[in-house]
């Protein structure tokens, strides 16, 4: 019954294309689109915005629907692509900070900013030269494994194992420090 009503509403919109028929389509599909975006991890406000964006796309590009029976599939493909574009846009955005909150990110006045660099160098002394180079390239320079392999003229698997084994070596030395920090807290 519900599907039959949806089909009639869609056919009316795709046939006439008026404001009234679009309002009916909007009322039927907008809640479904919001639920679609909510299931993909968007909060309610963004899900509603994305649903409206999909409905706007529907308004502008309804004539692209060739087979009216596949309208629902077309609409949710548009929704999926909208979600992808939103994720891509969000991944390119740089986080912004409120000037008032910036104090949380600054080191304490008596904290030596070079302390962390010297601490890193102290830990790296536990590794041999190829392991040090692999760890530096991976975690300081943020290179990918295939780039490390090319730089060191080794297979990618060897680069991965060097990083993995280096982390294991360092974990053995970091465990006592973690225990001291837990006892102090």
What are its keywords?
185 residues, mainly alpha, elongated
Topology:
Layout: H1 2-16, H2 19-39, H3 44-61, H4 71-92, H5 115-124, H6 129-140, H7 145-152, H8 156-184
Helix pairs in contact: 1-2, 2-3, 3-4, 6-8, 7-8
In words, what does this structure look like?
This protein has 185 residues and is mainly α. Helix content is 73%, strand content 0%. The chain has eight helices and no strands. It has helices spanning 2-16, 19-39, 44-61, 71-92, 115-124, 129-140, 145-152, 156-184. Helix 1 (2-16) crosses helix 2 (19-39), helix 2 (19-39) crosses helix 3 and helix 7 (145-152) crosses helix 8 (156-184). The longest helix is centred in the C-terminal third of the chain and has 29 residues, at 156-184. The relative contact order is 0.06.
